[in-house]
Description:
The structure is a single chain. By secondary structure, the chain is mainly beta. The protein has five domains: 35-110, Sandwich (Immunoglobulin-like), CATH 2.60.40.10; 115-194, Immunoglobulins (Immunoglobulin-like, Sandwich), CATH 2.60.40.10; 198-270, Immunoglobulin-like (Sandwich); 275-354, Sandwich (Immunoglobulin-like), CATH 2.60.40.10; 358-430, Sandwich (Immunoglobulin-like), CATH 2.60.40. It has no helices and 46 strands. The strands form 14 sheets. The chain has a five-stranded mixed beta sheet with strand order 4-10-9-6-7, with no helix packed on it. Strands 21-27-26-23-24 form a five-stranded mixed beta sheet, with no helix packed on it.
Amino acid sequence: MQSLEGDGTSFTLGLTITNQYNCSKNISIAFEIISPVKISGDKDICNDIVSLQATGGNGYFEWSNTREFTNIISTKALLETTLKNVSETFYVRHTSPECKEFIDSVTVTNQSINITFPANAILCSGSTKDLIITNNTAAHSLTYTSSDPHIVSINGNTITVQSLEGDGTSFTLGLTITNQYNCSKNISIAFEIISPVKISGDKDICNDIVSLQATGGNGNFEWSNTREFTNIISTKALLETTLKNVSETFYVRHTSPECKEFIDSVTVTNQSINITYPTTGNICKDGTKDITITNNVSDHALVYTSSDPHVVSILNNVVKIETLPSDGATFTVNLQVLNQYNCRKDISIVLQVISPVKISGSNDICDEKVKLTVTGGAGGYQWSNTSDFIQIIGQTNVLEVNLTLLTQTFFVRSTGSACTKNLDSIKVTNQSIRVNVPDGGNICKGSTKEVTIAGEV
């Protein structure tokens, strides 16, 4: 007899038995159908947890990891175990002596994703970086998905990542990786963002002292005064040095092998005020004087200021100065000079006040001897008896001469300044008595006689 397709777990066989005597008997035989042993459950799993269900047979099972069942690992219908290897075959049979050929087996494979990837990476700010994810299971076909805006593209196992505006010093990239067995793996890659190297500090300075601060990069820096960094002048973030020339360019880079293109430079210029001016000078009493200040740096725009009452006006680089009634022999004018770089220079000019030339001495003398004294002026004198000073008759402050005429005018000027008031004159007259004395002749004793004396003047 045979079991038929559609039989359940049992059926009853009916028979009629007849002998030669025509006797008959109806009999029934109950059959239990033992179905084949079957294993159900995932043979491709995403970890090492095995869960297999046995059905069929007589309901009692033996599990083994060997075809010969030399090692019984479970006697339950549900096998729960862990894989010892990536792939392992499990066998199951039922315990009935009937249908011993009913054995089933299944090979279970751990299809979990096995990849190698960098847990940390460095990304240059404003740039992209390719990340390679290595698939360690050749038979796996991997799919990478992510909604992270840092991802520019995914090409095979190459992930192109970019930094975004607003990123701080780091961010974490999230990826989900799935294979054809619907196994998935979530990975995270921590990125350190190296920001560009930047120099801060004054590039226009008012002296030769350089102070520049480097930021960004990996925090470790090299400074040089050459673009090729052939001469390292500092390895600190703060560069403090002095200019060798009026203008000099400084370069800085960070020491990380990543982002080697991060180099910054700045040209520092000494914008200190460079002017030429007289530190001393002469000014005529009750007069004015123009002082010219020469700007030796053509691209500097200079502004001159002063609260000194001696300063009448400032026009461009010409400062007009006047004397005050209270001035003594000297006074000092103070000026402040500023340029467009806010550099300042304080200057002082000492001025000697030249007083007017004055002649002292007598206008009227009783003989021909003239003695005149001059004061004022700038210290050097010339005397003459003509206003055009064609003939110089003296060069000291005291003139001693004889009158050649009854009345004579003498002129003196100071040779030490160009003051218009440094000229004086005096008219000297010989006022000595000049008379004609007649011969007295004879006079009678006891009488009088008139004598006439005639004056020449």
